[in-house]
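**User:** Everyone, produce a chain:

**Assistant:**
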Amino acid sequence: MNTYDLIIIGGGAAAFAAGIKANELSKKTLIINGGLPAGGTCVNVGCVPSKILLHAGEVLHSARHHSVPGIDIEVKNFDFKKVMEHEMRMVETFRDEKYQRVLRNLEHVTFMKGRAAFTSEKEIAVDGEKYTAEKFIIATGSTANVPPIEGIYEAGYVTHIEALSLTEQPKEMLVVGAGPVGLELAQAYARFGTKVTILQRGERIFPHGEPDLIARLHQVLEGEGITIHTKAEAKSVEVKGGKKIVTFSVDGNEQTIVVDEILLASGKTANTDDLNLGAVSVNVNARKAVVVNEQFETNIPYVYAAGDVTNLPMRLETTAGHEGSLLVENIFTDAKHTLNYDEVPYAIFTDPGYASVGLTEAAQMERDGVCACRTVPFEMIPKAGIVGRTEGMIKMGIDPKTKVIVGVHILAPNAADLIAQATVLIKNKNTVDDVLNSEPVFPTLSEAMKYAALSFDKDLSQLSCCI
């Protein structure tokens, strides 16, 4: 019979986490994946492949700009095609080990390919076959936006999906959008030797981050040869002689640029068009995202949603997975799990990277009307000087009355790794004094956390190394 306890629509992080938790609870579950291969965005066209390319770019850049006197390293060859082939092989390996093998061990879960659409209450159809369940989870993720640029469809473009599988390296690339995806791929391609230009509609790149740290990242990227235009908007594109001629405005002034490829990285739209949600009256917002409450419930009692398809804050794929797992417990164990997104970190995997958890200074001022914040440049961190990576910064915000840490923001090599400590500090509502009483290993970049804590009461220039 095509009857289940739970039907999950989607095949990415949220869907798999939900399926694994449902299996643990011995619930008969059907996962229907109609999009990317098993694993969704993260393993196929997101975290895994992009970080492989970023690492390759970092190796190239480090060889050419290591700044160690007395060492002369020559990069004899760079084969773009081989790097991309390696990336795609790694994706296949991760997909098999982390998804296909996992599926084979889920005795209560059935996985199938196909496009699912609601037909009536507690019923969906896939390729003409109908399936029923007591509960449904929508976890179909999101798709890259295509901004209204005249001629863009005729000229052609790539999103992050195609940019991670190109067989020929563009000599010149225009990136539309300066969020995490745009910045990461822009730096990777620039380090491979592509001449990269970024257009950002807002006044600064990644407007959600701490302005002073993001401004430093802007400087670093421009220092590597990336051209960045803010207050910029692509207007039109036409093809001549095999090249794409893009007309764009910068603060109202029109310019043109000739490129081989256009990468669109200007946000995402939730994947709900094909689900026929009107058949069961599930509410969506203007972004086509499924509207859920803090417990991942829609307006329909038996329909839930998790991940990028929802109106909840977008974070890392691990957050989507956490949502999926908590959601299943809410459904079948009467739990009331929620997520405090102020305690969820996020990161941009550029080099240096940017990572953040908790409130920014502006957010704390808006919420509390007061903020005690300190910013420490990495020139003050001994390990940063040792390895010649002093371009970074760390910013910490605390409640001035209780000294509880409410936000930490890092620009540094491997910032996504360094933010883990701050995530625990904020989740546990630790104070600056807790950090001051810790003893980090010397010399490490992770000492930056203690230096940030010390800066509230000390003049760092008057302290010895092993503080």
